[in-house]
From TrEMBL, chain B:
NCBIfam families: PA_CoA_Oxy3. This is Ring-1,2-phenylacetyl-CoA epoxidase subunit PaaC. It comes from Limimaricola variabilis. It comes from the Bacteria. InterPro entries: Aromatic_CoA_ox/epox, Ferritin-like, Ferritin-like_SF, PaaA_PaaC, PaaC. Keywords: Oxidoreductase. GO terms for molecular function: phenylacetyl-CoA 1,2-epoxidase activity. Its EC number is 1.14.13.149. Signal peptide: none annotated.
């Protein structure tokens, strides 16, 4: 049995990100390529942050999910180039982040990445754009901490990179 | 040793030792946000180390893994700049060490984005995005604490006086860098020092801090000469793999 790449992509759409389980590895935009090399299913994955502890878990979760679908030989390969960008998060993924309470990253990351002061986020709880950054780092390397000046709630913002 | 291996170890050892030192703040920083920030930056740096060690190990061709390079080399075999092995002391020292490192690391990674060596170029294009956030944070805090209260300013000036002499070790070059520059692996190294000087001068001025007039002094880390603290760092970092060399997670 050799399911085509689109079918496999559909399956991987059910593999959650280990640290932000609201979105899948496909929503995150890190699954770069899926293909067969002889009897091995090869999945190319781009790491988010170089030191993200989720990277190893993601590879393991992908392998496990595909084995559960009856595929014996799976190889998850790391693809470094081009580097991952938050612009690759799907529209569906951005909506899921918002529903989960995380403000999605500003688009066109190349123009603002590395400078939190150049980024803004609407409050995922009340929608207000009257918000302020509290800290460049949040509960994971990919997030920053913000606060809403209207509803006063703190929230996570997924930094553009 | 192959200049490429030496250079990758110089880079990777520097990010590893700073990552290790930075991670030690986990649970100890003065406020929760900075605690998390230091821990997460340590992760970035250790992740970048892994990439440098992979390139070094492959070029070396002896079958060593990144873990072998991190845990089974001795002090004289570590080629990190001395700045990153300076002790944590207090938050001012940790932050100033981080900022001086970032002020060099960002232009260095930007230069490496143009490297003729594919794996190094890929590494740099990935890391540079992370490093921009690092300096965004450390610069902001240097300015806020330098141009802050009397006490915070005194602490930041003390840290700058103590650490500035070590900053030059980040930029020390010898025939290793010269060889790689001639091969196109290391483009634009001359711009790195100029960028470091412009960055630190502008930021220290905003922070109302004075760069010491006696200049940089200490070099040698990149040839394996270290300060007293280095042995303690390695002892702690390497103790478990050396006690249980075949242990697996």
């Amino acid at each position: 049995m050799r399911p085509d790449p689109d079918t496999v992509r559909g399956w991987l759409g059910e593999v959650p990100d280990p640290e932000i389980p609201a979105i899948s590895v496909v929503d995150l935009g890190i699954v770069r390529d899926i293909g067969w090399e002889e009897d091995t299913l090869v999945v190319d994955v781009t790491p988010t942050y170089a030191g993200c502890p989720a990277t190893l878990v993601i590879a393991l979760d992908i392998e496990t999910a595909l084995r559960d679908r009856g595929i014996d030989k799976v190889e998850v390969r790391r693809r470094m180039s081009p580097p991952w960008s938050t612009d690759w998060i799907s529209d569906e993924g951005r909506q899921k982040l918002l529903d989960y309470g995380i403000a999605p990253p500003q688009l066109n990351a190349a123009n603002c990445a590395g400078m939190l002061s150049a980024q803004s986020a609407a409050c995922p709880l009340c929608g207000s754009e009257n918000t302020e950054a509290i800290a460049v780092r949040g509960s994971t390397p990919c997030k920053a901490q913000f606060r809403c000046r209207d509803c006063r709630e703190p929230f996570d913002y997924f930094k553009a990179i | 040793m192959d200049p490429l291996v030496t250079f990758c170890l110089r880079m990777g050892d520097t990010t590893l030792i700073l990552g290790q030192q930075t991670a030690a703040w986990c649970g100890h920083a003065p406020v929760l946000e900075e605690d998390i920030a230091f821990a997460n930056m340590g992760l970035d740096l250790i992740g970048q180390t892994q990439l440098w060690y992979e390139i070094a190990a492959e070029a070396e061709g002896k079958g060593r893994t990144p873990d072998d390079l991190a845990f089974f080399r001795t002090e004289r075999q570590f080629l990190n700049a001395q700045l990153v092995e300076r002790p944590n002391v207090d938050f001012a020292h940790a932050l100033m060490r981080q900022y001086l490192f970032d002020a060099w690391h960002l232009p260095m990674q930007e230069a490496l984005c143009e490297s003729g060596h594919e794996a190094i170029r890929d590494l740099a294009q990935k890391s540079v995005k992370e490093v921009r956030y690092h300096i965004d944070r450390s610069r902001d805090l240097i300015v806020r604490l330098g141009d802050g209260s009397e006490e915070s300013r005194a602490k930041m000036q003390g840290a700058l006086d103590a650490l500035w002499p070590y900053a030059d070790d980040l930029m020390a070059t010898d025939e290793v860098e010269e060889t790689l520059a001639a091969q196109g692996v290391l483009p634009g190294l001359d711009r790195v020092r100029a960028a470091f000087e412009a960055e630190t001068a502008a930021t220290m001025s905003r922070a109302t801090l004075e760069i010491p007039g006696n200049g940089h002094a200490r070099i040698g880390g990149r040839t394996g000469i270290h300060t007293e603290t280095m042995g303690y760092i390695l002892a702690e970092m390497q103790s478990i793999p050396r006690s249980f060399p075949d242990a697996r997670w």
